[in-house]
Amino acid sequence: MAEPATTLADWRRAAAGRLAGDNATDNAEAEARWLAEHVLGLTTTQLILADPRTLAIVDHERLEAALARRLSGVPLAQIIGRADFGPLELRVTPDVLIPRADTEVLVETVLATFAAERDLHVIDLGTGSGAIALMLADARPGWHITATDRSPAALTVARDNAAALGLGRVVFIESDWFANLGHQRFDVVVANPPYIAPEDTHLAALTHEPRQALVAADHGLADLAVIATTAPQHLRPGGGLFVEHGYDQGQAVRALLLAAGFSDVLTRADHAGRDRVTGGLVNRGDE
């Protein structure tokens, strides 16, 4: 245990040094600030004003406990219970994936593809925290958004986020992909399904997030294949399917969509230039 810091500012400097030294983050100073704000219940302005304050022993212990969790590999978002996604701040728990900037590309692709549409019915499969559904609902108030997840715990988080953001019009349904949707059809199906292969070495860094939301059989393609083959039955003529996938799965996912009868199949890169989102349209004459 580190020696007690004299002031809050001292603790923040020491914490940032430990975070940087352990390579726990590339943003050590900001993370030390966010930990302090969360543990002490302070806004950024209040934190600045409190920096010269001598820390009480109990506050120091609470700060050190939070820092120890971060240094052990627990994601910051799970420690502070929130994460940013586009313009939204979302509550997160260990029951859901932490929203990532790569997934914003999925939302941006849907918004750009249907930019002129004012009255669409959209479904987000495997919504988790509700990130995709809620960012779409926030950007397009006239769209009708449905979101599904097979996890009741995840749906609780998503509903809480919808309520907190004033987006209560989003409809949440417990369903394993399309299983509980009957014959409903939509203009857009969007999904960020599990796509990491069980043997992928990247899983070692994701042990604090729900494995069932990360891992899929068949080299990570099993759930993507189910969605691609089933989506046409739930899409209206001219509708589209858009999915997030691994950086090395673009070609395989394009093949899945083409085999399922989609046209205009394209893959879009994420902000790092890696294949990340693939989408396609059903023919306007399909019924």
Tell me about this structure:
The protein is of the alpha/beta class and 287 residues long. It folds into 2 domains: 8-80, Helicase, Ruva Protein, domain 3 (Orthogonal Bundle), CATH 1.10.8; 93-281, Rossmann fold (3-Layer(aba) Sandwich), CATH 3.40.50. The chain has 11 helices and 9 strands. A 7-stranded mixed beta sheet has the order 5-4-3-6-7-9-8, sandwiched between helices. The protein has a two-stranded antiparallel sheet with strand order 1-2. Strand 4, helix 8 (152-164) and strand 5 (171-174) form a beta-alpha-beta unit. The longest helix is centred in the N-terminal third of the chain and has 15 residues, at 57-71. It is elongated, with a radius of gyration of 21 Å. The relative contact order is 0.10. The mean pLDDT is 94.
